[in-house]
Amino acid sequence: MAYIARTIGLTTRRQVFTPLTALATRTFTSSSRLSSGESKDLRPPSTQIFTPADVQAGISALSAAGYDPTTVWEQRVVWGDHDQFQHVNNVHFVRWFESARMFYANTLTESDDFSEKRREEITRGTGKSFILAGINVRYRRPVVYPDTLLVGQACELPLGKERFMLRGAAYSLAQKTIVAVAAQDCVTYDYTKLKKCDIPEDIKKALEARGSHFDKKL
């Protein structure tokens, strides 16, 4: 176990410092040496570590894997996310998938099929909405600072009677690949009666419109 810990530490130590130097060079080069016709990047320098093209490539990769490109959540990694093994502690991913799930729920109700009252019920838990019953996260690669993750979501088809599986994937802009995936077991719940209920038709329609058939389990 000690050998494994030391090995991880050595690996992530190289990942922390080498990419930082390379990315910093790319940042200042891209913002200070502009060719004619190019517009200056007015984003904060720390945001310029990754270009808009990097972000678009990440969204495209998530879309190709079956995730909804219109509900991608951007999550910046901070130094304090590291643990003693010198990479992001795994528990942070659960929070990041939670933030992405709530963003997914908010965007799910943006269509005209939802009244203002229904939007409030779904996002605030005051009527028929859905609740997390369980989450399974599989970690593929360690993540280190500096990095920004793009978290994609998609409902796994077909839906159940009173539950559905929300699949998630975290794409690393630094590593240019998916570093973690999640299966989030969601149950539709009537908060006024405090019990499970069948998936409401408005939610069902919205989920199926943005759903995807995944080839394999986690």
Automatic annotation (TrEMBL):
Q: Which domain of life is it from?
A: Eukaryota
Q: Which residues form the signal peptide?
A: none
Q: Could you list the residue ranges that cross the membrane?
A: none
Question: Which Pfam family, an example, fits this chain?
Answer: 4HBT_2
Gene3D superfamilies, sorted: Hotdog Thioesterase
Query: Which Gene Ontology MF annotations are present?
Result: fatty acyl-CoA hydrolase activity
What InterPro entries does the entry give?
4-hydroxybenzoyl-CoA_TE, HotDog_dom_sf
Q: What protein name applies here? A: Thioesterase/thiol ester dehydrase-isomerase
